[in-house]
Write a structure and sequence with these properties.
heterohexamer; A: about 100 residues; alpha+beta; four-stranded antiparallel sheet; B: about 325 residues; Na+/H+ antiporter like fold; about 80% helix; about 0% strand; globular; binds adenosine monophosphate; binds sodium ion
């Protein structure tokens, strides 16, 4: 099948910053993203789990966005401004996508 | 003194406290007992809706007077000013830096609605009842403390603009909106409304609270197990002294306004309690450099259990003596 | 007229309506108040189980006669035929193309079980009660409208085969199965069964409905905020006129069969209500080109609130006049 | 015999059994009806808390004597020894290899708390009541069977060390901790505590159980649909014979200790029931080579429904005859 | 450790189509896949969130499948037939897997 | 933006083994990971879904860890010891990360 080069950006960010991140992505011209729930994790700031939590404070979200390669830099700039002072991680992978007209 | 002790003893052996203790113990023993996040949120929605509605229905039944306005204003003032006291105390008692101290201070100026709920049920079983609008006071006390904390930081140089978006988030966070909304619904629909949904919001209330406190025990216990080492003696002391100070501020406010013994108790409980839902979320946005383990462990692991077990009976006893009620 | 107005006013100020309004308002104010998906599903399972069971128990108590069969048949006929009317109206009143118009039409031929539930509770507080088997009628009215809509599209050229898998999914969707299953359980176990679980399915029912309507308000409000611009005046008008037309069809059916005032009201409510759970899912499978924002906004954002607030009291009043009940 | 049959018939037509059947049927018909995981867990937390608390409150009311200790010891002995019998039977009746046979055996030595809960409610409606501490017996019977199974495997060469971590997980798994914890809370707070939360844990109990059994029917039905082909005639027979054997062991234990007719029934039910929560999790850790489809299908798809429908009335009838109660 | 070349296919698809997709994957000889819940997202057809939703209509699922490279094309063909008329995205990444005998 | 080469390891493992796995990862010097919930799946041992389940037995978790390339081998060794006898899959992808100092 016909596929097209693209980038898969995965941003794991504090739940309280999720809306700010996706707003920034939209501002940077990103046409789509998907948010996956996150159940727990561990990092330099310790381990955490969502079990039994009510507050959004102790939780992270995972935002996945497939984009055309040329949009990578604006996306990362935008994402970086939001995550800068916050915990979380950003990774970029090469990928191929179907239906490039969607991106 | 005896009365306090017997009330405290009764309180300590109530199903709600023991459910909290069970959660703590299970977490300490590293049991895999856990309440799903969605269920915990569902329980908290129920509690907020029920307590708000009952408050409103009680206002509908007893009418209001100017003490309502005065109480709201007093709540605002307390929430704005308690963080300043807490901040000063923390700088003296603990080695926390400005940012961490301000973050902790914000929690103590705000309130814990579950402490309020638990306090209300202790009042009820002691045959007292506070003014119904105290749930509205609880709502107005959630947010101002956050502004104070940010102001404390700005003062010390590290300018931190409170953006409009965060402001909106804080003022319209889900707990405030549900609490106030249910309060208004209870007020509007009054005794009729209450009669319709009484067997949902009144009869099973304490049982639901047990399950919720079990969950809070689990969460608090896990937090403590992971972060107890952060609790220096100074911080620990703060976690017990600060609610007492807060409660006295609440006592003063309640007495000045002329509330009933129940109302004064609730004011004390609100002022003594420390937020563990709304303020942590706001702090993560506004002060990401502040260590959440410190403020969460202190608020949820020290002050919440203290208020739940000893604090509430103490405040209640003081309020009774002070009001002669 | 006065009776309608006072009933409408009573209805508007009931806890269930106000809970819905609270949800709407919170969504409009962009509060982060939300009900977890799992909790919303849990509440809907409860409501379906309770309403089904109570319907069955009522049939067990009052026995059945040929009106049961007639009602089921009438329900089928209505569900099949209302989409044709809706489709015609939409083509005249709105600029929707065939696919979107058919998709919307399917929703109005089918039913909203929550509207039915809300209507039942208004009936109860008005001292009326419908035939218990109306919940079975509700169940049979869910699916046929989908077939009509696909037929409308096929007619206009864009052949769209209804595959067997989709058919099975629609006929055996969770809501239908639970509603019918609980109905049968209620019927089989009768008064004994009801006595056993009454304090679960009867006493707290209205309170649970409040929380569920709060959630529906949140969802509807968020949908409206995002998609209100799609609502042309023609569509808006359709969203209010169509339920009235549907209700008259329901009135005719109920009168012909000779149902009680309560039963006629319920028939009107069913015919007037528009699906927002089963049909949207089926449309996503069968008509992915149809824009879901249109049918969801219309059904959940316009017709549902209309029925909840004004529609139900109107239908009830008409049914009373028509039946002399 | 007549008494058994009529009891069985009553039981078969109760809302709880029919709810289970509804779930089974929906799963077989491949309906998409499902209960969210979080809701299922929430319901199970409720049931464990309620049954534990009521057991404790009943002990507080009736006091305890040495039969408590004897029952706990007997429970331990049964849980340790039943797997040995089951293992032997399986090796004779089925073609399972050592690992699969041991894994299945562990399930039958342990217990199913929902079977216990369902049995208790049948007892209540039959006017009997077991000793309150039987919930504690249920708790002690959860884990030992796992040790026996691992020992059976070690014996046959395939050494499988039970690591300390797994041991801790099993002993402190959430169900045991909540059951025992709620039991202690009920015991400590007694009649007062029960009065406070009665309308939460007593009144709606059977209704909640219906929803939970609906879910269990769905899960069991899906499992059966996928794995029924694994059920050889030998295994099927085992799934029905083993609970009968277990129940006789429970009968012997209860009679020796001198329990009431209710207590003996509960002992029989415990011994007859097979775990489907704690033991499967432990088996996945300790015996990953064992096929989970076998033990889950047998325990949840065969033995659980058997006990629920026919087993419980049979055990109850036998216990009545044996105790003359 | 010994690893083997493989492909990681990630398909974000409407929840109502999930069963049809996984059936198609099985039909195409895919031996395994994992379904992750999705909490929300945004694309050309607007933003959505599962919060408070009861219907499966407004929701997506994320299906991840690790496959041998030679199975990629049949998989994509099969997936494409299902997603064709529907919203959603398909991406393919190169990866290495342990225990190749499992694929 | 400045990015750094890294590896993205994704381990889909039985929920009952999750804690053992993350303990092993920490033992192998992994500084961070994120746990995603899994809703269902299918493999050689059949299909499964979390719907309505209470026991942790029939469920999987997805553990994602971003690591420096040189830490890959110790991580895989550690992970392998845990998953060895268990069902589940392990995949490794090349990626780029922001803020390398975090890894
Ligand atoms: N290397 C990593 N790989 C995957 N997730 C990570 C990693 N580091 C951090 N995270 C996630 O980001 C959260 C915050 O990380 P940290 O800022 O290191 O405390 C953790 O709890 C994890 O959920
Ligand atoms: N570029 C993208 N990256 C990640 N997810 C996407 C992307 N585009 C669309 N999606 C997901 O697919 C859904 C439907 O997309 P669309 O068809 O563009 O409306 C969105 O709501 C997202 O969940
Ligand atoms: N090729 C695969 N791609 C993605 N997930 C898989 C794959 N194979 C297995 N899984 C996951 O691992 C679980 C157990 O797989 P198995 O050991 O093959 O039964 C499955 O139910 C899936 O959730
Ligand atoms: Na306070
Ligand atoms: Na209709
Ligand atoms: Na047993």
């Amino acid at each position: 099948m016909q596929t097209h080069k693209a980038k898969r950006v995965e941003i794991i960010i504090e739940a309280v910053m999720e809306k700010r991140l996706t707003d920034a992505l939209e501002g940077a011209g990103v046409t789509g993203f998907t948010v996956l729930p996150v159940r727990g994790g561990s990092g330099r700031s310790g381990a955490w789990s969502r079990a039994g939590q009510v507050s959004r404070a102790g939780g992270m979200s995972c935002v996945v966005s497939l984009i055309r390669p040329e949009k990578l830099d604006p996306l990362l700039e935008a994402a970086f401004k939001v995550v800068e002072r916050h915990i979380g991680v950003v990774s970029v992978t090469d990928c191929d996508v179907l239906r490039a007209e969607r991106f | 003194m005896d009365a306090i002790l017997s009330l405290a003893a009764d309180n300590l052996l109530s199903p709600i406290i023991l459910s909290f203790v069970l959660g703590l113990a299970a977490a300490y023993a590293r049991s895999d007992l856990s309440v799903p996040e969605a269920v915990a949120k569902g329980l908290s929605l129920y509690l907020l809706f029920a307590i708000g509605f009952k408050g409103g229905a009680s206002v509908a039944a007893h009418g209001i007077d100017q003490t309502l306005i005065l109480s709201l204003v007093a709540g605002l003032v307390l929430s704005f000013s308690i963080p300043v006291v807490a901040f000063g105390l923390l700088r003296v008692m603990s080695g926390l830096d400005t940012v961490d101290a301000a973050a902790v201070a914000a929690h103590y100026g705000s309130i814990s609605i579950v402490t309020f709920v638990a306090g209300s049920s202790v009042l009820t079983s002691a045959g007292l009842e506070g003014e119904g609008y105290m749930v509205a006071v609880a709502a107005v006390m959630e947010a101002p403390a956050i502004l104070s904390a940010l102001w404390l930081i700005a003062r010390s140089g590290a300018r931190r603009a409170m953006d409009g978006e965060l402001m909106r988030e804080v003022m319209l966070n889900g707990s405030i909106v549900l609490l106030v909304g249910a309060f208004l619904i209870g007020w509007i629909t009054g005794a009729d409304g209450l009669a319709q949904i009484e067997s949902f919001i009144v009869a099973p209330f304490l049982g639901v609270l047990c399950l919720f406190l079990l969950d809070m025990g689990l969460v608090a216990g896990r937090g403590l197990r992971q972060s107890a080492r952060l609790l220096t003696p100074g911080l620990l002391l703060f976690g017990v002294v600060m609610p007492l100070i807060g409660s006295l501020a609440g006592l003063a406010a309640g007495m000045l306004i002329g509330l009933s013994a129940g109302g004064v108790s609730l004011f004390m409980i609100l002022a003594a309690s420390a937020s563990y839902i709304a303020v942590p979320a706001a702090m993560r946005v506004a002060l990401p450099e502040a260590n959440p383990s410190i403020y969460l462990t202190l608020s949820l692991g020290v002050t919440f259990p203290f208020n739940l077990t000893l604090g509430i009976p103490i405040y209640l006893a003081i309020a009774r003596i002070a009001t002669g009620g």
